[in-house]
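G., the chain you wanted modeled:
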Amino acid sequence: MNFRPFYYLTALVLIFIANGQDIHFTNFSAFPLNLSPSYTGFFDEDYRCGGGYRQQWRTVPVNYRTLSVWGDMNIKTLFADDNKYLSVGVLLNNDRAGDLRYGATQFMVPLAFHFKPDSAWHFSAGTATGLMQTGFDAARMTTDQQFDGYYHNPSLPAGEQFQFNSFYSFLWNLGAGVRYEGHKNHAFMIHLAAHQPHNPKVSFQEKRLNYIDPRLTVVPSYTFLSSNSKANFQAEMLMQFQGKYKEFIPKFGTQYFLQTLTNQSLLFHVSSRLRDALMLHGAYTYKSWYAGISYDLNLSRFRIATSGRGAWEIFVIKTFRSAYVPLIRKKPCPVFM
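Predicted structure as tokens:
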């Protein structure tokens, strides 16, 4: 079996060097469209939808709340060859932090092309475009100028002037991925993406411009399939590079099948954001449903303020298979006797 395509894609990871923080989830593999547009349609069924919610640092004033809803579908009737197809999806993210509810709302439409030359290889390449609204609620702001001599009076002016408290940015991502399942007990996969390579502008003041640094995301994964089909060993890693910031999250775990006929299984994983948090994951699958929960244990110096508490997160994913009739490209001529 020729491994060259897999090696070439891995080499691209070493060539790319991309440069704040972005929306992220501990269960990163449960939010594939946030990782790379190449994940769009990267599944066996025809339709898929999912969503999740994350709450971080609830015990401190500047806590984070993140909601993500997404869906994608495979369009397999556009090409004469069954080994080629297109996929399209939608992605909606909402992230809020602090008393002023500062944050962003993102809406994106990813599109991907898939090529499966044989049963072992699966290649994909995609792009995603959309808009992001960034802003805060100025009405929730309180200042010392609202003190009337006795108590805080919210009806008094805060004394802060803003040209505007929200703005829009154009978003654009690129991605590519490959999966290899040529061995009976081994499966390899890697996806990468370049987020915001065009450096979108983000600023609340027209004369003082800031830009979002490009972000490179790399997600390699490996699955060992046991010979008795009762359990799988899984390992994956999220690597992100943005400006001077780097993030590495290794994740290891197992999937134990309670009943293979109905795809009923339990999943347990442990991951770590180095020198920052230890994450515990649990999930359950049944037929075409996949749901899970995770909790982050804070290990950084900030644990003094959070009392060691980090973040909790939940997600659910559902896949569907349609009973479509393949488009007939050629109509045979009946034979008359």
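The longest helix spans residues 4-15.

Shout if anything looks off.
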